[in-house]
Amino acid sequence: MNDFKQFALSTELIDTLTKLGYTEPTEVQRLVIPIALQRQDLVVKSQTGSGKTAAFAIPLCTLAVWEENLPQALVLEPTRELAVQVREEIFNIGRQKRLKVPVLFGGLPIDKQILTLKQKTHIVVGTPGRIMDHVRRDSLMLSSVQYLVIDEADLMLDMGFLEEVEQIIQALPQNRTIMLLSATLREDTQMLISRYMQAPVSVMLESDTQTLDTTLQIAYWIEKEDKYAGLLQILEQENPQDCMIFCATREMVNVLCQKMKRDHIRCGMIHGELEQRDRLDTIAAFRAGRFHYLIATDVAARGIDFDHITHVINYDFPTGKETYVHRIGRTGRNGKTGIAISFVAQSERHMLETVESYIGTSIQVVTLNTVTQHMEEHAVQAKAFWNRQRERIITKETKGAILNRDIMRLSIGGGRKSKMRTVDIVGAICGIEGIEAADIGIIDIRDSLTYVEILHGKGKIALTALQDKTIKGKVRKVRETGGKRR
Ligand code: AMP
Asked: Ligand 1: distance of its center to the CA of 216 in Å?
């Protein structure tokens, strides 16, 4: 039984959601999906972790018409990491409908993105700067866009994207629907709403307190010079399953990561100065369970969803009260409990009090016991922690992997340069006995190679048959391939 059935979604989509483990809509989904499906403008006050991505991804995937070639929906994200994460969620949800969901952001070559956009595209996800870049180059056509999602609007404006967001809205057709999602609704966000949205329906959710309720908050008095030793002691005591460690600056993130690596603790780091590829690879590796301690600055980590964080450590105490809530909101999500540990120096006492009055509860601060007091107990805990650092890494499957099980991706020799077209591929594959058009998934034509997905477990049949079948007048090299799916 899947409770998403209440929204009258297609059986295919219900099946996809079940495979993703979504059987009961979250609150934001329950409220947003029916309104979004009716194409009404919507303002949603909600935070990451509430399931808000699926709340717009489900309607977008339902409303998308597969046969249409030009993009029908545009999703704006403030950061590249968020763009990648949200694209993945939409792609998974639209997987069985074979929706093409390219992601566009700076820091990667634009030429490849231009080639991708020349093919059929249903939903585009991207950062405002790069999206505008494509609009100016005429590589992204907005004439068929009916739906615009402005996600994390407050962060988007914090990052100075107001001008681009306005330019994008102005470039859209008149009859578009807009959904704006934001953790807070400040004056500048209100301005966007009143200027561009028509009688929007409001859905307001307060989720901060929920996170606070399910998270145990602990704090230790600790001075700067003792922090690293203190961290080791905490890690040995807690042996966290998956932990985010926040530092105040990029420099501190670098230093801490080096120290931990020197001590053979498997960890990774993200901050704004790292190369885009490295940041994305780090996030993917953390999600896959290749390491368990992610050291981060606030900005780099904002909005990114890791659903398995058991501990958050404030190595440097936050300098803003909202930041405290943001950080500890990484744990204690989806009904699970979490632990938030903060290091507080005497000089940070005032900030601690500010945080306490903001969250409306006091945080008990204690002195970190010296190890000598609980020597034996600590030795056992420490052993478990250090053993874990040497364990063989068992990587976790990504959430979408289950959807890929019945799908085989083939590479076919020949692409744009040899004038390969979608019809050539579809024609050849449909000529194989036992395979019909509905078994063909996403087709991606590159310069001299074409990728095609064969669905419903029929990959082997297609692979064998294509070995000696002609495609566009020639027998082509056809292989099974892994690689990045777009
Ligand atoms: P978001 O707030 O969109 O970042 O989502 C937070 C997390 O909840 C993500 O890992 C989603 O995959 C997951 N999620 C979203 N909707 C559901 C649902 N209905 N049931 C279970 N997990 C969900």
From this structure: 22
Strands 293-296 and 267-270 come out as parallel
**For 439-465, what is the mean pLDDT?**
93
Cα separations (Å) of 337 from 47, 217, 261, 287, 333? 18, 11, 28, 19, 7
Question: Residues 326, 244: contact at Cβ < 8 Å?
Answer: no
- Predicted local confidence at residue 376, as pLDDT: 81
Query: Which residues does 471 contact at the CB level (< 8 Å), separation at least 6?
Result: 412, 414, 420, 424, 425, 428
Report whether 32 contacts 101 (CB < 8 A). no
* Residues 91 and 400 sit within 8 Å (Cβ to Cβ): yes
> Would you say the pTM of this structure is higher than 0.70?
yes
**Which letter, b or e, does each residue of 326-351 get, where b requires 16 or more Cβ atoms within 10 Å of its Cβ?**
bbbbbbbbeeeebbbbbbbbeebeeb
Ligand 1 centre and the CA of 214: distance in Å?
A: 17
Pocket of ligand 1 (CB under 6 A): 21-22, 24-26, 29, 48-54, 305, 307, 334
Quick one: pLDDT band at residue 406, thresholds 50, 70, 90?
Answer: confident
What spacing in Å lies between the alpha carbon of 25 and ligand 1's midpoint? Answer: 9
Query: Cα(462)–Cα(451) distance, rounded to whole angstroms?
Result: 13
Question: How far is the centre of ligand 1, averaged over its atoms, from the C-alpha of 54 (Å)?
Answer: 7
The per-residue pLDDT for 373 is 63
Contact 237, 311 (CB under 8 A): no
What integer pLDDT is reported at residue 378 of this predicted model?
83
User: Strand runs (DSSP E) across 103-249, as ranges?
Assistant: 103-104, 123-126, 147-150, 177-182, 201-204, 215-221, 243-246
Average pLDDT, the chain: 92
